[in-house]
Amino acid sequence: MSQDKTGNSGAIVKSSNELAKTTPAGEYLTSALMDFDPNHFEGFAAIADGANKLLMLVLAAVIKAGAAREHEILAEIRDAVFSFIRKMEPRKVMDTMLVSRVRILYIRSLLARSPELQSIKVSPIERFLEKSNSTSRSRGSSRGSSPGRSPGYHHDHVSRVALIDENVQGFKVNIKQEKKSKFSSIVLKLRGIEEETWRQHVTGGKLREITEEAKAFAIGNKALAALFVHTPAGELQRQIRAWLAENFDFLSVTGGDVAGGTTGQLELLSTAIMDGWMAGLGTAQPPSTDALGQLLSEYSKRVYTSQLQHLKDIAGTLATEEADDPVHVSKLRSALESVDHKRRKIMQQMRTDTALLTKEEGGSPIRNPPTAAEDARLASLISLDNILKQVKEVIKQSSTRPLRKSKKKALLESLDDLLAQMPSLLDIDHPCAQKQITDARNVVESLQEDPDDPAPDPNSNSNTLGESEVSQWNVLQFNNGTTAPFIIKCGANSSCELVIKADQRVQEPKGGEVIRVVPRPSVLAEMGFEEMKGVFEQLPEAVSLLALARSADGTRARYSRLYRTLASKVPALKEIVAEMERGGVFKDVRS
Fold first, then answer.
1. Domain finish residue from 224, 256, 283
2. Is residue 279 located within the same domain as residue 426?
3. Which of 425, 466, 492, 494 is most exposed, with the fewest beta carbons within 10 Å of its own?
4. pLDDT tens profile 515-559
C-alpha cells in the first residue's frame, strides 16, 4: 500500500492490489457474515449464539493473522463485518462487548495508518470518573493526565481538531465504606468470616450494579469511545485503579494490608467499570449505531476530507502553473489528470464505505472541497495539448518535399483554424498556444514552394491533392428524400484535411467522380449566404443538397452537421473533430 499522503488511509482507502487480495479465512468469514440469516434459527438464544460465534471468529482470525497481517484480514472482511453488525443491531442479540472489541480493532488499524488522525487529543481519565457524593470531579481532575498516562496519545490542545464533545459528564462511582457494628461483628465471627475482609468487601451484587451503571453511562458516549481507542486496555484499567485508590481512602493500599486483599478489590472494581463501559460503547443508539461505530464514521470522514483537501492543494498549485512548451503542457495535464483520478477514486470509496453513517443515521455531512477552478484548468490543458499536437503535425507535414502551393495554403489554413480554437483555453494558456502557432506559421511561410507545381484546373476530375494522398476511403450513403440515394466517399489527406470523392452531380448525367478538400466549418463563419453557395459550387453537388438551407445560419448549422458526420467516419480525423467540438467550431444544435 502506498504510504504517500494521497494514498495513505489505512483501513479506509485501499489500493487496488489490496482490494484483490483474499485469504481462505477471509473468504470464509465474508461468506458466513453475509449469509447469516436470523430467520433460520429458532428463538432468541439460538440467534444470539450464532451471531456472537461469528464475532468471536472475527476476533480469532485477527489474532491468528498476527500483527504483520492484521490489517490485511481486517480490510478483506471489512464490508461484511460492518454490514453484519448493522443488520443485527435491531435484534439486540449481539454481545456488545464483542462488538466493541471488533470496532476497536478497526479504529486502531485506521489510526495506525492515518497521519490525519495523529493530532487527536483525548480527555484524561479524570474527566470520566466522579465521586457520587462529591461536588467536584475528583481530587486529581486538575491534573493534565493521570500518572503514567501513555504519552503517545496525549497531544497539545492547540493542534487538536475536536471531533468529540468536550463537555464530558463524569461517571459517578458510588462506593461507601461500611460502618462498624458490634452486632454485625458477632454475626461475622459466628460465620467464621474475618471482619476486616468483610468491611472492605464489595459484594457481587454491587459489582453487577456498577457494571450496569457504567454501561448506561457509555452508551452513545463518543468521548469515552475515543479514550478507549487511543489508550491500551491495560493502561486504561491501571489508570482507573489509580483513580479509585486515590479517591477512596478505604481502598488504598497500605503496608498493613494483607497481600492481595485491598488490591483485589481495586481490581474487581476497575474491571466492573471497564466491562460496563465496553458493553455500553458497543450498544447501538437507533437510528444510529454504537458510539464506537459513530467514532469510526467521524474518523473515516476526517481522513477522507483531509485526503480530498490535500489533493485540492496539489491541484491548486498545478492549476496556477504556466506552461512553457508542449512537454511542460503534457506533464501538467498528466499531473492534473492523476490528481483528478485519485479524487474520483476517493469519492467512489466514500459512496460505498459501509463505515460511514448517513445523515439519517446521525452522521455528519462530508464537505468536499470545491474543484471548479482546477477542473477548468484541466479542460483548458486538454484543449491546449490537442492544439499543440496539431501544430506539431503541421510542422511535420511541412517538412515533406516537394511542398506544393496548395498544400502550403492548406497548412496555413489549419493554423488559422487552431487560432480560432483559442477561446476554448483559459487566459493562462493563451501565451503558450499563441507562441507555438506563430512559430509554426513562420516556419511554413518561410518554406519555398515547388516551382513545378501546376496551377489547379477547375474542370479537372481531381484536384491538386490527388487521390493517392488518401490512403483509405470510407463510404457513406445519403438519401435526402427528393433524389435517388447517392454515395459520398470520405478520407483524410497528409495534412489531416477532410477529403471527399463523389459524383460531380447526383442525377444523370453524373459527370464522373471528383475529389475535393472539404473546408472546415470555421471557413463559413463570416460568409454571407451567396458566398457560401459559391463555395459549394466548387464541391460535388451532393454537398449542396445536404448543406444548403434557406438562411445563412441554417446553412452553417447543416454544413457543420454534414462535416461532423463525414469527418467522424475517418479515424485520422476523430481527435481533430473532438477538438473542434470543444472549441465551438461547429455551429449546429449539438455545439
1. 283
2. no
3. 466
4. 888 888 888 877 888 888 888 888 889 898 898 888 988 998 999
Please name the residues in contact with 549: beta carbons below 8 A apart, sequence gap of 6 or more. Answer: 555, 557, 558
User: For 16-26, how does the pLDDT look when each residue is reduced to its tens digit (9 = 90+)?
Assistant: 444 557 889 99
Q: Are residues 508 and 376 in the same domain?
A: no
CA-to-CA distance for 292 and 107, rounded, in angstroms? Answer: 8
Which CA distances in Å does 76 have to 11, 306, 444?
Answer: 10, 24, 61
CA angle 415, 421, 542 (to 5 degrees): 75
Looking at the 3D structure of the chain, how many domains does it have? 4
- Which residues fall within 8 angstroms of residue 164, CB to CB, at 6 or more apart? 122, 222, 223, 225, 226, 295, 298
Strand order in the sheet with 486-492: 474-478, 486-492, 498-503, 513-517
Q: In this prediction, what percent of the chain has a pLDDT beyond 70?
A: 79
Q: What are the residues whose beta carbons fall under 8 Å from the beta carbon of 382, sequence distance 6 or more?
A: 333, 582
Q: How many CA atoms does the CB half-sphere of 95 hold within 13 Å?
A: 14
Which grid cell sits at 497? 484535411
Are 85 and 124 in a shared domain? no
**Cis-peptide, bond into residue 540, ω within 30° of zero:** no
Centre a 10 Å sphere on the Cβ of residue 186 and count the other Cβ atoms it contains: 11
Residue with cell 500518572: 147
Instruction: Please name the amino acid found at residue 15.
Output: S
Q: Which alpha helices (H) appear in 248-290, and where do they start and end?
A: 261-281
Which residue type, as a one-letter code, is found at position 127? R
